[in-house]
Amino acid sequence: MKLRIRRYRWSDLDTILTLHQICLAEVGLVPGDGVYYDDDFPRIQEIYLACGGDFLVGEAGGRVVAMGGLKPVDSESAEVCRLRVHPEFQRRGYGAAMLSALEQRAAELGFRRLRGDTTLNQGAALALYERHGWQEIGRERVGGLTVVYGEKRLSSTPAEI
To answer: Which residue, 7, 61, 64, 123, is most buried by CB atoms nearer than 10 A?
Structure first.
């Protein structure tokens, strides 16, 4: 099934919040662990869209199965947030497609650097970032988890086809 990536709409809110909860539970992250949070979901317009970032969703077969956001950090940097693919749709390249779309969108918005984080127990996410040229810039213990921070410098010239 082909993934169709589009911009978030307010009517996606319940669906993406559920997707977020399913994906984090799948890797053992739970409310109260110091890493899990979901208070940004009711404020996507404010946190991601209205301040120069973006939030994308991926649909397959008419169902939202992936998502990811770009949250501006400063004029040159944005954070990749909420990169999720429903467990039933993983291992199909959807995570790579979402990350590529977020990187492309960040470049279009004028960002020169992306940052992001994941946990050490999310091996698939770590491998995805590594394949896309991200560099680890640090680690931190939060609760019982190790958070891995990464960064990628974006090309200032359009990619050649």
So the answer is: 64
